[in-house]
TrEMBL record:
<dbReference type="GO" id="GO:0042412">
    <property type="term" value="P:taurine biosynthetic process"/>
</dbReference>
<keyword id="KW-0479">Metal-binding</keyword>
<feature type="cross-link" description="3'-(S-cysteinyl)-tyrosine (Cys-Tyr)">
    <location>
        <begin position="115"/>
        <end position="179"/>
    </location>
</feature>
<comment type="similarity">
    <text>Belongs to the cysteine dioxygenase family.</text>
</comment>
<feature type="binding site">
    <location>
        <position position="110"/>
    </location>
    <ligand>
        <name>Fe cation</name>
    </ligand>
</feature>
<dbReference type="GO" id="GO:0006534">
    <property type="term" value="P:cysteine metabolic process"/>
</dbReference>
<comment type="pathway">
    <text>Organosulfur biosynthesis; taurine biosynthesis; hypotaurine from L-cysteine: step 1/2.</text>
</comment>
<dbReference type="InterPro" id="IPR010300">
    <property type="entry name" value="CDO_1"/>
</dbReference>
<dbReference type="GO" id="GO:0008198">
    <property type="term" value="F:ferrous iron binding"/>
</dbReference>
<dbReference type="InterPro" id="IPR011051">
    <property type="entry name" value="RmlC_Cupin_sf"/>
</dbReference>
<keyword id="KW-0408">Iron</keyword>
<keyword id="KW-0223">Dioxygenase</keyword>
<feature type="binding site">
    <location>
        <position position="108"/>
    </location>
    <ligand>
        <name>Fe cation</name>
    </ligand>
</feature>
<feature type="binding site">
    <location>
        <position position="162"/>
    </location>
    <ligand>
        <name>Fe cation</name>
    </ligand>
</feature>
<dbReference type="InterPro" id="IPR014710">
    <property type="entry name" value="RmlC-like_jellyroll"/>
</dbReference>
<dbReference type="GO" id="GO:0017172">
    <property type="term" value="F:cysteine dioxygenase activity"/>
</dbReference>
<protein>
    <recommendedName>
        <fullName>Cysteine dioxygenase</fullName>
        <ecNumber>1.13.11.20</ecNumber>
    </recommendedName>
</protein>
Length: 224
C-alpha cells in the first residue's frame, strides 16, 4: 500500500480537495454520517494506492454530528484520550481524540505514518515545528493554525513535527484522526533542546468500550 498525491499537488500539507476528481470518473460519494465515512474509507483502502487528496476530501465531506460519535467520546480528567473507532483491516487506525480543557500533546513526529485530522467538536491549535538539525538547539516554529469545527489538516514526517492543544479553559474538544499505517511508537521532542524520547501509545477505549489500565494495548502515540 502506498499513498500518492494527485499530480496537481505537492506534499506540503495543503491539499486541493478536487485534484483527485478525475480519478473518480466524476462521481463523488455521499458522506452524511460517520458510518458513511467509515464505509468509504474501507473501500478506499481496498486499493493499493491511496490518493491523499481523496482521503482528505472524505474527511472533509463528513459534517460532524454528535449522535454519530458520542459513544466513542470518553474523556479523562488528567490528559487527552485516544479512542479507537475502526482498525481498517490493519491498514489504518481511525480514532477519536478527546481533549479536556487545557489538555495538549507533546511535540512529536509520526513515525512513517500519515496523519489526517478533523475537528468534531470545539477547537484546537496546531503548532508545527521544523525538524531540528542537531540536538541541543531549540525547535523552530514554522506554522500555527487554529482548527475549528469540521476543519481538517494533514501531516507526515516530511512536513515536520507538531503539537496539538486545546487552549480553552472552558470547552472540551474532540478530533477524529486517521493514521496510516498504524503505529505504536513515536518520538517526543523537548522544545528547548530537541532531545527526544520514545513514546509508546495506548488506547483509552476501543469500539466504545473503556479499557482497564491493565488491558491497554499498544497503538497510541504522541504523548508525554
Ligand atoms: Fe500528531
Amino acid at each position: 500500500m502506498s499513498l500518492v498525491h494527485s499530480e496537481e499537488n505537492n506534499n506540503n500539507g495543503k491539499v486541493c480537495e478536487f485534484a483527485f476528481y478525475k480519478h473518480l470518473g466524476n462521481k463523488l460519494p455521499v458522506v452524511n454520517t460517520l458510518d458513511d465515512l467509515i464505509r468509504e474509507l474501507r473501500e478506499l483502502f481496498d486499493s493499493d494506492k491511496i490518493n491523499v487528496e481523496y482521503l482528505n476530501y472524505l474527511m472533509k465531506s463528513y459534517k460532524s454530528r454528535p449522535a454519530d460519535w458520542k459513544k466513542y467520546a470518553k474523556f479523562d480528567r488528567c490528559r487527552y484520550t485516544r479512542n479507537l473507532v475502526d482498525r481498517g483491516n490493519g491498514k489504518y487506525n481511525l480514532m477519536l481524540l478527546c481533549w479536556g480543557e487545557g489538555h495538549g500533546s507533546g511535540i512529536h513526529d509520526h513515525a512513517d505514518s500519515h496523519c489526517f485530522m478533523k475537528m468534531l467538536q470545539g477547537s484546537l491549535e496546531e503548532v508545527k515545528y521544523a525538524w531540528p538539525k542537531c540536538e541541543g538547539e531549540e525547535l523552530q516554529e514554522i506554522a500555527r493554525t487554529k482548527l475549528e469545527l469540521n476543519d481538517t489538516c494533514y501531516i507526515n514526517n516530511s512536513i515536520g513535527l507538531h503539537r496539538v492543544e486545546n487552549s480553552s479553559n472552558i470547552d472540551t474538544a474532540i478530533s477524529l484522526h486517521l493514521y496510516c499505517p498504524p503505529y505504536d511508537q513515536c518520538l517526543v521532542f523537548n522544545k528547548n533542546t530537541a532531545k527526544t524520547t520514545v513514546s509508546t501509545v495506548t488506547f483509552h477505549s476501543m469500539y466504545g468500550k473503556r479499557l482497564k489500565d491493565n488491558d491497554k494495548i499498544l497503538a497510541q502515540p504522541e504523548d508525554n
